[in-house]
Design a protein that fits this description.
It is built from 13 helices and 15 strands. Strand 3 and strand 4 form a beta hairpin. One of its GO terms (biological process) is F420-0 metabolic process.
């Protein structure tokens, strides 16, 4: 049994070649929900959905976001209407009262659908409509996710990190903004001052997640701050990780990050933007998988391989290195 902690594209890329290494029916994936937003009344769970679409054979692997060959008629119409009406396509937060009223699962991250600053395909939107409707019927996010996983014929167990709302808020020189505004609408350009996981003090990991963390854990090469940070902010998760074998795959080669804003976010959170900084951020990790070219000297066991993952063969190689590291500490 193995559990992978997933956010962004790093861990999903690892999962794309993991079946030859980790038996899918004995694999659990815990998805970050700090990136979730409610857009036009529909709850979008980007990190959970990337795994859902990947394992369902429908992921757009050019973007690692959304469904392959999806149409975008509704999105296009929303943009056209907003531009014709002079409303623009910038992110439009609902007001403070509306942010905290109604469905708790969407608190602190509600956006109007006017102009729709995130591109949502039509088939992708059907997933969000179904998820939101199941929540409105009384299902938890965990239950709704399991229903969708069944619809996509997943053979592994996919869990959201919590049924409670946590929102990753990036504080920048331009003011605070949800991570999706920072990264999607603004391209990660405002200088980062700090990162907040709003709601994490009240949120809890589900029993299903805590049970999954009793198994060996692999932390993929995801962003340590915005992909793993929301999970680690939940009461009980860091303690559970400290009690089980954990292997982490570094998203850096020494001080060079593979992709995304992890370097700027690491520095904003007070860590060195490097593999050494990742090791400091992950005190619970018992071993690491590093790139062959990464000479970082760590005080914990290290397995080295080529950690770039351009295809499923690459992903299988990295997954085998993770299993080797787990065997060394088990």
């Amino acid at each position: 049994m193995v559990t992978l902690l997933s956010g962004g594209t790093g861990t999903p890329k690892l999962l794309s070649g993991a079946d030859a290494v980790f038996e899918p029916t004995e694999t659990t994936v815990v998805g970050n929900t700090g990136d979730d937003v409610e857009l036009g009344g529909h709850l979008v769970c980007p990190d959970v959905d990337t795994v859902l679409y990947l394992r369902g054979g429908r992921l757009d692997r050019d973007t690692w976001w959304g469904i392959a060959d999806d149409s975008a008629t509704t999105h296009g119409e929303l943009v056209d209407i907003a531009e014709s009406a002079g409303l623009g396509t910038e992110p439009r937060y609902l007001d403070d009262e509306r942010q905290i009223s109604g469905r708790e699962i969407a608190r602190w991250r509600r956006f109007s659908g006017v102009g729709e600053f995130m591109l949502i395909g039509d088939a992708d939107r059907a997933v969000h409509v179904t998820r939101t409707s199941l929540l409105d019927e009384g299902a938890t996010l965990t239950e709704a996710t399991r229903t969708l996983a069944d619809a996509f014929d997943l053979t592994l167990d996919l869990l959201p990190m919590s049924d409670d709302p946590v929102a990753t808020i990036v504080h920048t020189e331009s003011g605070p903004m949800h991570f999706q505004e920072f990264w999607v609408a603004r391209g990660g350009e405002p200088a980062i001052e700090s990162v907040e996981f709003r709601g994490s003090d009240e949120a809890t990991a589900t029993d299903a997640v805590l049970d999954a963390l009793a198994d060996a854990v692999v932390v993929g090469p995801s962003n340590p701050i915005t992909s793993l940070g929301p999970m680690l902010a939940l009461d009980g998760i860091a303690d559970a990780l400290a009690e089980t074998p954990v292997v982490a795959v570094s998203p850096f080669v020494e001080d060079t990050v593979f992709s995304g804003p992890a370097d700027d976010l690491m520095e904003a959170a007070g860590y060195e933007a490097s593999t050494a900084g990742v090791a400091e951020a992950y005190p619970f990790a018992d071993a690491f998988v590093l790139d062959d070219a990464d000479g970082t000297d760590l005080s914990r066991p290290v397995v080295r391989t080529d950690t770039r993952m351009d295809d499923e063969g690459d992903a299988e190689r990295v997954a085998r290195a993770a299993r080797e590291a787990l065997e060394a500490i088990s």
